Amino acid sequence: MLAVSYAIGGSEMADPPPLPYQRVLLQGIDISANVRFVEVEDHDRLIDRAVVEVDDPAGLAREAPREGNTLVVELGWADTHAALFEGEITRVQTREAGCEVPRVRLTALDFASRIQKRPFEATNHTGTLSAIVRAIVTRTANVGVTVAQVEPAVDPNYTETAPLRQTQDDWAFITEQSRRAGCISFVEYNAERSQFYFVPLTGIMAAAPAGQLSNVGTSGRILSINLERSAGTADTRRSAASIDPATGDVRVSAAPPPPVETPSVPSARAIDTADRAGAPIDDAIAVAGEATETPATLRPTGLAVGARDGDAPQDPTLALGWRARGRCVGTVMLRAKSRIELTGVASWAETQWYVKRAKHVVVTPRPAEDMLASYVTEFELTR
User: Could you tell me if 55 and 103 are in contact, meaning their C-beta atoms sit under 8 angstroms apart?
Assistant: First the structure.
């Protein structure tokens, strides 16, 4: 980015620090001016949540919002921002303490919660899995969700004699079917509307990374990170046992092959740092090569008895059992259900990761407070 300077009173000064951007719409009305705190939690398997805190010096804000009102949240920086959330308010809290300005706290869930709240209906579904999922999502009107993509990797067909039985509420049933099909199901705010997706994890894992996190730079710069590799926490590689309805024979499917791990090589920056410090980098590499166990020998395997034919044998987002948790300078590029690349960390972790959770937090001080606004993203990654 080209650096620009400006002059005040004849003296030249550097650019002011970038300011976070926030825009909050309550029932289509912009209430951003009094918003002091925004938190948007984007999760790959759970319903997304937003928390907004609004100053209420005149006592009007506490009278306006009600459960069921819509909330749209847009966050980022002045030059890069995006709408991250649309949902409905599920909780309204007010807080008053002494001389402090009264504050109203709004909690909202995305529109998947509307599907979750439907009364349970036991149903025997027939047709393809994709058609069944589409029918369930659009079962009632005024949900505020359009179907964008329902593309399971395997689309089985169910008949009157062998239907797909629904014994859960609509959202629990959809998420269970997505898990068994090796997919994820979620509602995401895209193109100015909430859209439903039912997509295979293999496709997400094959997509290019959405961005990069590094311990250098500005946007997306890592502030803290905790890396963990533990093969024992990897998702189990399952073989399935089922009974052939025609012959009564037991059929056992083979477990998927273990994931291939590329050998880790210290980066040029790590080698240079070790050389400057006089550290024996060659000795460290030699020690790593003398491990008596391999991740493949430590990962669990299992037998899923009675599993349905075609059920996913393993979650590809947890194939290695690696996890990374941390905080970085806020970036809207870090979204759950996508992949990100880590750089500037341990060599074995300098690769592409799956984003399991991203929590975007913007804090805006009052005009009278001598503080700067902040935007931080907390993340949880898996591999």
Answer: yes
Identify whether the C-beta of residue 78 lies closer than 8 Å to the C-beta of residue 19: yes
Residues whose CB is less than 8 angstroms from the CB of residue 165 and which lie 6 or more positions away in sequence, other chains included: 122, 123, 124, 125
* Cβ(24)–Cβ(84) below 8 Å: no
Encode pLDDT of 268-285 as tens digits.
666 666 666 666 666 666
Nearest 5 degrees, angle CA 173-CA 153-CA 255? 90
Q: What radius of gyration do the chain's Cα atoms show?
A: 25
Round to whole Å and give the CA distance between 24 and 21.
Answer: 10
Residue with tokens 């599907």: 115
What is the rounded distance in angstroms from the CA atom of residue 138 to the CA atom of residue 114?
11
Q: What angle do helix axes 281-288 and 268-277 make, rounded to 10 degrees?
A: 120
The H-assigned helical ranges of the chain are 112-116, 129-137, 170-180, 201-206, 268-277, 281-288, 295-298
Q: Coil, strand or helix: which one is 215?
A: coil
- Rounded distance between C-alpha atoms, residue 59 and residue 5, angstroms: 42
One DSSP character per residue, 252-294 reads EPPPPPPPP-PPP---HHHHHHHHHHT--HHHHHHHHTT-S--
Cβ partners under 8 Å of residue 60, min gap 6: none
Lookup result for tokens 């972790």: 349
Packing angle, helices 170-180 and 129-137, rounded to 10: 150
How large is the greatest C-alpha to C-alpha distance in the chain, in angstroms?
A: 92
Residue at 312: amino acid letter:
A
How would you class 99 by CB atoms within 10 Å of its CB: exposed for 0-12, middle for 13-18, buried for 19 or more?
Answer: exposed
> Coil, strand or helix: which one is 153?
coil
- The answer to whether 344 and 273 have CB atoms below 8 angstroms apart is no
Q: Which residues of the chain have pLDDT under 70?
A: 1-17, 217-219, 241-242, 244-245, 253-255, 260-297, 299-300, 302-310, 368, 370
Q: Is the dihedral of CA 322, 266, 264, 288 positive or negative?
A: negative
Per-residue confidence (pLDDT) for residue 138, from 0 to 100: 93
Cβ atoms of 112 and 60 within 8 Å: the answer is no
C-alpha 119/C-alpha 115 separation (Å) is 9
The 10 Å Cβ neighbour count of residue 163 is 14
